[in-house]
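Supplementary Note 3. Input sequence used for the single-chain structure prediction.
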Amino acid sequence: MRELPAKARIFIYLEWLVFTIAFVIFVLVFKADLINSIQSLKSIIIILSLTIADIASDLFPIIYSIDSSENKAEVTISYSLNFALAVLFSPLITIIISFLAAFISDIFTRKQWFKTLFNSTKIGLETGIPSLFFYKYYSLNLPLTNPKNLSAICVGFIIYLLLDSAILFALLSLLNNKPFIPFWYKNIKKVFFTLFALFFLGVVIVFFFQTQPLMNLFIIPTFTAVYLALKRDVQVTQETEQALYELAAVVDARVPDTMFHSERVAEITRDLCNALNLEDGITNVVVMSAKLHDIGKISIPDEILQKPSKLTSEEYENVKLHSLDGEKIASALTRFRKGATLIRHHHERYDGIGYPDKFKDTQIPLGSRIIALVDSFDTMTTPRNYRKIPKTLDEALEEIKIWKGTQFDPDIADVLIKMIKENEKKYAQLIKEAKENFE
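The predicted structure, written as discrete structure tokens, is reproduced below.
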């Protein structure tokens, strides 16, 4: 935990403190409800069954990425169970079951102690606090379809969703040094419809428990199907993304002097987007496009790609098609469709004499202007078959100064020059590694 930023550690300590205070208050106020519940064999069986189901569902999370960072977040079917718990039981029983289920499942999966404690207390809070609302406004003596209960269910879900996402994304925004509100908004959009679907499953559990508790046995295959469908959706997306990145790497590897070229371009592009203070959503698309910018070269014959001498005009026209081919490959997949346009225009020039559409100035998408500059910078500073000795950092930056306003966007060029100079050791090491790979 010591490796975490100070602000993140303070947030975690505060979250633990809030949970402790809430738990103590719940014990003092709702102790009688707990005592009454454990005196009924039926209630004990229901509570134990839900606890076991909660633990089991937590053992099979669906993991997804958070923005452009390496952080991950999880969605599990327990989201539905915990929501049902909050509706059906008193706040004390709810906070105990949700906390214990998360705690035990995290121990089984051997998470770090502070992650286990944070996750279990977070789930306890986000379930226990809505349970207070349901305790006051939801009547188990009325059918779920009663207007009062339906209203309570809708408002309670909003409270549940906001607590869950606010606690998690507040911590992750601190870890990534991002402003909370835009960070929360962009990430909640990723999982909202998944959580909304799980909310309806939770409502079904509530309905059956109020009418025919044994019918909840049929929820098990439903939960299994939903879990498999959600996991498959995430898996297909991740595998498709990885497959395209591997294809881009294969393209680079076809010519020894471009080995890891796309990875370096993507890394520097990410730094430049951050230096330009672009939003995370835009940065994600630009970095993804940078990683795939040369994927269209898969259709160029080896004798052209690997030619050590100057290309003929006909060969050069063939090479120029790679931006169009790259656009076709990327646009065929929904996840990469936004970046397809950036790939198409990454060889446009600021003065309008680039290709394929001879766009100029701000006609060229911002992401394409960024990639074009970084692509050229990497090409200048790393060895090529046709030029064994690359430019030094200073020489490359001087070249960019000369060509800004003609080949490159002058404002972006100024930011890149400043960024490279301020982090000279980092980029010198990146270039050194590229030279070693070439040798």
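The domain at 6-211 is CATH 1.10.1760.20 (Arp2/3 complex 21 kDa subunit ARPC3). The CA atoms of residues 350 and 405 lie 6 Å apart.
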